[in-house]
Amino acid sequence: MSDSTTAPASPVVLEAWFDLQCPDCFQALDDVRALREKYGDRLDVQLRHFPLAKHKHAYAAAQAAEEAVEQGKGWPYVEALLARTAELGERGEPVLMEIASGLGLDAEEFDTALIDGRHLLTVDADEAEGKAIKVTGTPTYVIGGERLDGGQSQDGLRERVEEIADRLLNA
Predict the structure, then answer these.
(1) Is the pTM of this model over 0.85?
(2) How far is it, in rounded angstroms, from Cα 122 to Cα 103?
């Protein structure tokens, strides 16, 4: 997702590779919020899409998030969507539209974007890049050239990200 949490000139970039139907990614939002709080505009948190095959609606969810970026509400959409991962799994794409409407997004444009596939290339490019750098599960973080895999366990991930960010910011 090209919508980052801070200005593009931030000195340190944290790429957060998420599957938007992944319950572990919902849990990881606490870490993302804490990192944004601690570092403010010194850390540019960028959401990258890595929809997993086991999550039937993750690919559509990634496209929906990109449309939310286009309409100016990328992170609010992602956070609302991740809070409803179980519901997305059960009910599918109507949940994507409900969240868009709830955030005041242009529902007609949102629906059209999901139908015409205008965000397919962005999602595909993220997924291909993720595979190239050996992302295998979500959440996975990349900071300072280091890949931190949270797909197996998120224990200690925030601390490791902070270590690397502190080192990069103090270099």
Answers:
(1) yes
(2) 22
Which residue(s) pair with 44 in the sheet? 13
CA dihedral 136, 23, 54, 124 (to 10 degrees): -60
Distance set, CA 20 to CA 13, 42, 51, 118, 163 (Å): 20, 25, 7, 18, 26
State both tokens at 140.
């996975």
Peptide bond into 139 cis (omega under 30): yes
Strands 140-143, 146-149: parallel, antiparallel or unpaired by DSSP? antiparallel
3-20 as b/e: b if 16+ CB within 10 A = bbbbeeebebbbbbbbbb
Tell me the pLDDT of the chain (171 aa) as tens digits.
655 554 445 589 999 999 999 999 999 999 999 999 999 999 999 999 999 999 999 999 999 999 999 999 999 999 999 999 999 999 999 999 999 999 999 999 999 999 999 999 999 999 999 999 999 999 999 999 999 987 667 778 889 999 999 999 987
How far CA 40 is from CA of 2, 67, 76, 127, 150, in Å, comes to 18, 25, 17, 27, 23
